[in-house]
Design brief:
The structure holds three protein chains of three kinds. Chain A contains 14 helices and 22 strands. Chain A is of the alpha/beta class. In chain A, the strands form six sheets. In chain A, strands 1, 2, 3, 4, 5, 6 and 19 form a seven-stranded mixed beta sheet that branches. Chain A has a five-stranded parallel beta sheet with strand order 8-15-9-10-11, covered by helices on one side. In chain A, β1, α1 and β2 form a beta-alpha-beta unit. In chain A, α1 packs parallel to α8. The mean pLDDT of chain A is 93. Chain B is mainly beta. Chain B has a single domain, classed as Ubiquitin-like (UB roll) (Roll). Chain B is 9% helix and 34% strand. The chains are: A alpha/beta, B mainly beta, C alpha/beta. At the A-B interface, β8 and α3 of A face α1 and β4 of B.
Chain lengths: 422, 82, 375
C-alpha cells in the first residue's frame, strides 16, 4: 500500500462544475488548493469526459482555467472517513491519502433517484444519467433501441446525447404532467440562456416521441430488458427496447457533509450567504445545497471558493447570479414532483434494496427505517442506502439516518490506515 | 489519441483504449450479466457513477471492483458473474 | 391496553427482554413488553450474535453452558432469517503460554461435559487456512454457534405474542412505580411485577443498579464465503473482557451466513459518544490482520459502535431488586447477552413462579452485592 499525506489551505471535495469553480477561485486568491474526486478525471457527471477542447463552451473554459490554476488535482480519490476535525481520509488506487485542510469545500454533487418497479433490476435497465455516463465512458450505443423515462430535465439531455451517438430513442416518458411542464417552461422565459438551451434540445430531439404524464409500469425480458410497459392516464402500451434509461430527478450526496456534522434542512446541506455550513470552516456548493442545475452550481462554487480563501468581497460579486439561478431551482422542484401512481408500481415481490434483495412485501411489515434495517438488512449493503434510501423515503416516508465511516466501502487495510495525530 | 490497450473479459481478448472504463468494455464484448445478486438474479450496471455497486466484477483477481469507475489498462483481466 | 393489571411488564425488547417475555407468556402469565425504539435496537442489534460457552468463572460457565443448550434445542424452530449456524468457535493460541491456556480450557470444558478439541498448529491451519503461519494451535468448540440477533429477538417476541403477550412499541417508560410503570404520555400500566431488561438504560429506571456502558466497535465486510469457517477468538479476548481497564482490543472474527465477515472487538469504559474512534478502529483491524493477513484486502462496508451493559463482577443481574416487592432485573449481560438470554429468561421466570432454578441462582442475584457497596 502506498500511503500519503497532503495538506492544503483549501480542500475541495468533488471536481464537478461546483468544485472546479471553487478550486479556480480559491487558487486565484492565492491560497494552496487541492481538489479530489472519485472519478479518474474532473468533470463530475454533467461534464464527464469533457476537456479543455470540449464543444461544450463553459466546460472548455472552466477546464482551461483549472489547468491554468495552481490547484492540485488528485484523482481518482474517494473520501471515506474523517478521523478528526481538519482531516479527511481518502482511498486512492493503491492506498490511502490523509488530507489535511484549513478550509473545506464540499462539492459532492447529486445522484439519480431510483424508484422500484417490476423488472427494474434487469440488466440494461439503468439510470438516465447512468446510461449516458456509460456511453461517455466508451460504450457503443449506435443502433440500439432506448426508452428514456422517469423525470427531470436530465431526461432531455440524455435523450439528445444518446441520439447524437446513434441510438434509436423510442420515447421519452416524463412522469410530470403537461400542465406542470408548461408552468416550468414559463420560468425559463426569464433566463435567456435557458431558453436557448431549450431550443437547442428541441431541435436535437425532434422526431422523438416526448410524452408527459407518462411513466414506466414495468420492464420485461429474459436475463436483460427486452421491452417496457408505459402508461399515461389514457392508455398503456409496450415498447420494445435494448436499454431502459430511467431516473427520477436527483438527490443530493450529503453523506460526507453529514459525517462531518453539517446541519441538514429538508435533506439538503444548510449554507449561509457565503456557502458556509453550520460547521465553521466547512463550505458547501452545488447540488448538495439544493438541486439547481449547472449555472447555480458554478455560482455557488465561485462564492465558496473566494469565501474560503478569505475574499468575501469577491464572493459577493456572484450573489446576484446565484439569486437568479435559485429561482430556476425552486421551479425545478415544483415541476418535477413525483406523482402518486409511482408509489403503486412495485408489487410485494419487487426488490427495493438491490444490495440485499429485500422485497417490498418484507418492508411493509416494518414500522420504521431502523426496524427495516435491523430486521431485513435493507440499506445495509455496500451502497449504504444510496439507492434504496430515496426510494423508501418516497414509499414510506422514512428518512435517512446520520452517516458513519466508511462512507464508501474500502479495503480493511485502508480503513485501518487512519494514522493518529503524532 | 487515447492509447490502445488489450484486455480480457472472461478470458476473451478485447481491444480497448485507456479512456474506456472496464464497464464499457464488458458491455462491448456482449456480456450483460455482470454479477449475481444475493438471491441469484443477474445484474448489470445501474447508476454509472460509482454509488450503486451493481457493476461489481473481479479485476486482476480483486473482487467487488466497481467496473464503471475503473479505466482499462493493458492486460487487465476482467471476470464477470463470479 | 387490557383491563386489569398485567402479571409481568417487561421493559425492553432486546434479546433479553424478548426471551423473558416468551418464557413468561409460555407459563400462562399475562405479559406486556414495552420498547422505546425498535426490537433489538440496543446492544442486541449492535453486537455479534455469538452463542458461546465462556469459562471466565464457574458462574459464567454455568450460565453460558445452560443457555447455549437451550439455543441448541430451539435451533430447529428458528426461522431462516435468524441464520442459526453451528459453525463452532476456535480459541486461537499465538504462543506457547496461550497453548497452555488452551489445554487448561480443554480440561475445564471436558470435565464439565462441553465438547472441545485441542488443535495443534497443523490442525489449526487445516481448519482455518487463512490464519497466519506460526500460530501454535487452538481449541475448537463445535457446539458454539452464530445467529442474527435482531431477528432472533423478533422471533421471541412473536412467540410471546402468540401466547397472548402484548407489545407496546414505541413507548417510553419514565418511571417504575409501586403499581407498575408510568409511560411518557402520563399513562400508568398496572403490573404485579416489573422486569427491568433495559440494558444500558436500566440504571436510569432503577437508580443504584451498577451497570456501566462498555463501548465496542465492529466492522462488517462484503461477502467472502468460506474466508473463515468458525468464529475465531484470540485467547487474549478473555483478558480484554475480564479487565476493568479503560480500553482494550482483542481479535474476534465471525463468519455470517451471508458470507460477510464481522470483525471485532474493542472495549472502552467511560466513553459516552457513539462515534467511531479512529485509533481504536486501527488497533482492532490491525489485530485482525495479525491473525488473518488476508483480511486486509477484504472490503469494509460499514463500521459502527455499540454499548454493552457491564457489571463490576462481569455477571448479569437476574432476580429481585432489593427492597422492591414488585421489581425484578434482567440486565448487565456485557458481551454475553445473546448467549445467555434464554438462560436468563428461565432463571427469571423460575424466580417469578418461586420454582427451583435449573442452575444455582446465587451468583446472578442482584442481592449478591450488599447495598451501598456499589462503587
Amino acid at each position: 500500500m502506498n500511503n500519503s499525506r497532503r495538506s492544503f489551505d483549501v480542500l475541495v471535495v468533488g471536481a464537478g462544475p461546483a468544485g472546479i469553480a471553487a478550486a479556480c477561485c480559491a487558487a486565484e486568491a492565492g491560497v494552496r488548493v487541492g481538489v479530489v474526486d472519485n472519478n479518474p478525471r474532473p468533470g463530475g457527471q454533467i461534464w464527464r469526459g469533457e476537456t479543455q477542447n470540449s464543444d461544450v463552451a463553459d466546460a472548455a473554459s472552466w477546464f482551461r482555467k483549472l489547468a491554468g490554476s495552481r490547484a492540485e488535482i488528485l484523482t481518482p480519490m474517494e473520501v471515506f472517513a474523517q478521523p478528526e476535525v481538519g482531516r479527511l481520509t481518502a482511498a486512492s488506487s493503491d492506498g490511502v491519502c490523509e488530507l489535511s485542510y484549513k478550509k473545506l469545500i464540499l462539492c459532492t454533487g447529486a445522484r439519480e433517484r431510483f424508484l422500484p418497479f417490476p423488472g427494474w433490476t434487469l440488466p440494461n435497465v439503468m439510470g438516465a444519467g447512468g446510461l449516458q455516463a456509460v456511453v461517455k465512458s466508451g460504450m457503443n450505443i449506435a443502433g440500439k433501441k432506448v426508452v428514456v423515462a422517469g423525470s427531470g430535465p436530465l431526461l432531455l439531455a440524455v435523450a439528445a446525447h444518446l441520439k447524437a451517438h446513434g441510438a434509436g430513442v423510442r420515447a421519452i416518458a416524463e412522469q410530470a404532467s403537461w400542465s406542470r411542464l408548461v408552468r416550468f417552461g414559463m420560468t425559463l422565459a426569464s433566463r435567456g440562456r435557458k431558453i436557448s438551451q431549450a431550443f437547442q434540445l428541441k431541435k436535437q430531439l425532434s422526431r422523438i416521441a416526448f410524452r408527459a404524464g407518462c411513466w414506466v409500469v414495468s420492464a420485461e425480458g429474459n436475463g436483460k430488458v427486452e421491452s417496457v410497459t408505459l402508461r399515461t392516464e389514457r392508455k398503456t402500451w409496450k415498447e420494445s427496447c435494448d436499454y431502459l434509461a430511467c431516473g427520477f430527478h436527483l438527490v443530493p450526496n450529503v453523506e460526507l457533509a453529514s459525517l462531518i456534522g453539517c446541519e441538514l434542512r429538508g435533506g439538503f446541506v444548510r449554507a449561509d450567504e457565503f456557502q458556509e455550513t453550520s460547521v465553521a470552516g466547512v463550505y458547501c456548493a452545488g447540488e448538495p445545497t439544493g438541486i439547481g442545475g449547472l449555472e447555480l452550481s458554478i455560482a455557488e462554487g465561485q462564492i465558496a471558493g473566494f469565501a474560503a480563501a478569505g475574499q468575501r468581497d469577491k464572493a459577493r460579486e456572484y450573489f446576484s447570479e446565484r439569486k437568479g439561478q435559485r429561482r430556476f431551482s425552486s421551479a425545478l422542484e415544483r415541476a418535477f414532483a413525483l406523482r402518486e401512481e409511482l408509489r403503486t408500481l412495485p408489487s410485494a415481490e419487487t426488490i427495493v434494496c438491490r444490495c440485499e434483495d429485500v422485497r417490498l412485501g418484507r418492508l411493509r411489515e416494518q414500522s420504521s427505517w431502523r426496524a427495516a434495517k435491523l430486521q431485513s438488512r435493507c440499506g445495509m449493503g455496500p451502497c449504504q442506502g444510496r439507492i434504496c434510501g430515496p426510494a423508501v423515503e418516497f414509499l414510506f416516508g422514512w428518512k435517512a439516518e446520520s452517516a458513519r465511516p466508511p462512507i464508501f466501502p474500502v479495503p480493511i487495510e485502508s480503513f485501518a490506515a487512519t494514522a493518529c495525530t503524532e | 489519441m487515447p492509447k490502445a490497450v488489450s484486455v480480457t473479459v472472461d478470458g476473451a481478448q478485447v481491444d480497448a483504449t485507456e479512456e474506456m472504463t472496464a464497464l464499457a468494455v464488458i458491455l462491448l464484448s456482449g456480456t450483460t450479466t455482470l454479477r449475481r445478486s444475493v438471491s441469484g438474479e443477474p445484474r448489470g450496471a445501474l447508476c454509472g457513477m460509482g454509488v450503486c455497486f451493481e457493476c461489481r466484477v473481479t479485476i486482476n483477481g480483486e473482487r467487488h471492483c466497481r467496473s464503471c469507475q475503473i479505466k482499462c489498462a493493458h492486460a487487465m483481466d476482467i471476470r464477470t458473474d463470479e | 391496553m387490557r383491563a386489569g393489571a398485567y402479571d409481568v411488564v417487561i421493559i425492553g425488547a432486546g434479546i433479553v427482554g424478548a426471551a423473558c417475555a416468551w418464557a413468561c407468556a409460555n407459563e400462562g402469565l399475562r405479559v406486556a413488553v414495552i420498547e422505546a425504539d425498535t426490537i433489538g435496537g440496543g446492544a442486541t442489534g449492535a453486537g455479534m450474535g455469538h452463542l458461546v460457552v465462556m469459562d471466565d468463572s464457574e458462574a459464567q460457565f454455568a450460565l453460558t453452558r445452560y443457555s447455549r443448550s437451550l439455543w441448541q434445542q430451539l435451533a430447529k424452530e428458528l426461522p431462516g432469517d435468524v441464520e442459526y449456524e453451528s459453525c463452532g468457535t476456535i480459541w486461537v493460541a499465538a504462543d506457547e503460554e496461550e497453548m497452555k491456556a488452551v489445554w487448561q480450557k480443554n480440561e475445564f470444558y471436558e470435565t464439565r461435559g462441553v465438547q472441545a478439541e485441542v488443535l495443534d498448529a497443523k490442525a489449526l491451519r487445516m481448519a482455518e487456512p487463512n490464519l497466519r503461519e506460526g500460530l501454535v494451535g487452538g481449541l475448537r468448540v463445535p457446539g458454539d454457534a452464530v445467529i442474527y440477533a435482531p431477528c432472533a429477538a423478533r422471533f421471541l417476541i412473536e412467540r410471546a405474542q402468540s401466547r397472548g403477550a402484548d407489545l407496546y412499541l414505541p413507548r417510553v417508560v419514565t418511571e417504575i412505580t409501586a403499581e407498575g410503570v408510568r409511560l411518557n404520555d402520563g399513562t400508568v400500566m398496572a403490573a404485579h411485577r416489573v422486569v427491568n431488561a433495559a440494558g444500558t438504560w436500566s440504571p436510569m429506571l432503577t437508580p443504584g443498579i451498577e451497570v456501566k456502558k462498555r463501548k465496542g466497535h465492529l466492522v462488517i465486510t462484503e461477502r467472502y464465503a468460506g474466508f473463515v469457517k468458525h468464529q475465531l477468538v484470540e485467547l487474549g479476548y478473555l483478558k480484554s473482557a475480564h479487565s476493568m481497564t479503560t480500553e482494550s482490543v482483542a481479535f474476534n472474527v465471525q463468519p455470517r451466513r451471508t458470507g460477510q465477515m464481522l470483525i471485532g472487538s474493542s472495549r472502552q469504559f467511560d466513553v459516552e459518544g457513539k462515534e467511531v474512534d479512529a485509533n481504536i478502529l486501527r488497533h482492532m483491524l490491525q489485530r485482525a490482520a495479525d491473525f488473518l493477513p488476508g483480511v486486509n484486502r477484504l472490503s469494509a462496508i460499514r463500521g459502527w459502535t455499540g454499548f454493552r451493559a457491564a457489571t463490576p463482577d462481569k455477571l448479569p443481574l437476574i432476580g429481585p431488586w432489593a427492597g422492591r416487592e414488585n421489581l425484578f432485573l434482567a440486565t448487565g449481560h456485557e458481551g454475553l447477552g445473546i448467549t445467555t438470554s434464554l438462560g436468563t429468561a428461565k432463571l427469571l421466570v423460575d424466580q417469578l413462579l418461586r420454582r427451583a432454578t435449573e442452575i444455582p441462582i446465587g451468583p446472578y442475584l442482584p442481592s449478591r452485592v450488599p447495598e451501598g457497596v456499589h462503587a
